[in-house]
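Can you make up a protein sequence with its backbone structure tokens?

===
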Amino acid sequence: MPLALIPWPSSVTPVDGPPLRPQPGTRREIAQRLAASAERLILEGHGPEGYQLIVSAAGVRIESSTAAGAFYAEQTLAQLVQLDADGPLLPAVEIRDVPRFGYRGVMLDVARHFHPVSTVEAVIDRAAALKLNALHLHLTDDQGWRLELASHPELAHRASGTSVDGDPGGFYTRAEYAGIVEYAAARHMIVVPEFDLPGHTHAVGLSHPELLADPVISEHIVEITEQYGGGGLPEQGVPYTAIAVGFSSLRADAPGLEPFLREVLGEIAAVTPGPYVHVGGDEALGTDPADFRAMIELATRIVAETGKTPLTWHEASVADLPRGTIGQYWGFRTGDHAERARAFADKGGRLILSPADAIYLDMKYDAETPIGLTWADGPTSVARSYDWDPAGVIPDLPEPAILGVEAPLWTETVRTLADIDLLMFPRIGSAAEAGWSPPAGSAERTWESFRERIAGLAEAWTEAGIGFHRADDVPWR
């Protein structure tokens, strides 16, 4: 049976000899003690996030080129802790490890349902333990604006009061957002803020009605509203608490649009140390195509002028984007949007892969799952969440054009950290492995191995207070 390591390292070599027997404690406490007392070497050749970890009865040795590599070695160390009749142990082993992709993210939607700083920090901890290095915060949508800005405080103050189904809303102050960024950085994660535009902008109209077009009420909007109930159809100037998409849009001809975007995007860029600012660009179903292109071109140009790299959903590839703009693909693994996504690579950019039918964490596991949705080709079992490889999503896309992977968690039905844990775990392990480990089909990079290894983390997750889903396709122990 393979060691319960998620994501699976580049190479794992058992070493002859007795195990290491540490003093009792939680797995995290044991790993922290061992890491603190470990022999540490800073050596060239491990890369910005790679490491070598050697465990023997005599102790622990960690080699890395950076603090990030040493941090990831400690995460592996925690997963190596086992228990037997004599107490905790770590098997004698030598691990060499380097990530496959440089970007490995999780997205938390705090617009549909607002989540407090403590929950965001908990998500960061959970993601960092699996060697994810980016937190994409979906800060704005039809249901709310969640970041206070000095340039436009009215956005948060007038458009954050509610969430889906009329649940309580909220927003992050500038100080709270800075704290989130700092908390993430201490765990070697960047924060990627998203101001979704030109669609998904109903909340903007609560404080700036002059910038917003009237809602476009299609048959689809009516159908979704009737299907899920509550909230009613969107009305200009009224907070939106239902979950339909595609009805809202900024106005390309609004006289104040460019200065507004320059002030808002400029401030978001200024308070975010990371390299990316996400400007959305998805599901602008009620926006004239020419207007869509014009607004996306304006927004990405503004972001590029701040020195950040623009990041957009894949629909934005129809626009003339600044060279190097990153595209995020949310279509299905065999979807008809692949050509749009490939256009980012043709324009000198790269792609983050988030195929909805594999990696969207808000999908139900099965029909009985109490929360979640099913629009991404039905429920997503743990097996289906694992059964894909980034290199196979966009046909003929060279691997260097893939920046990495990201697992989005939309929160139409997600109200609490317990809800987040239920939908994230164990499927976040599939995303972590897709982003870090060797390609699918390599040694131990199989579903049969993964299901055994993920089962081996059950006690560790329980110890950490993570209420994971005990999926039927995993042999939990």
Notes: Residues 289-305 form the longest helix (17 residues). The first strand starts at residue 11 and ends at 14. The domain at 11-97 is CATH 3.30.379.10 (Chitobiase; domain 2).
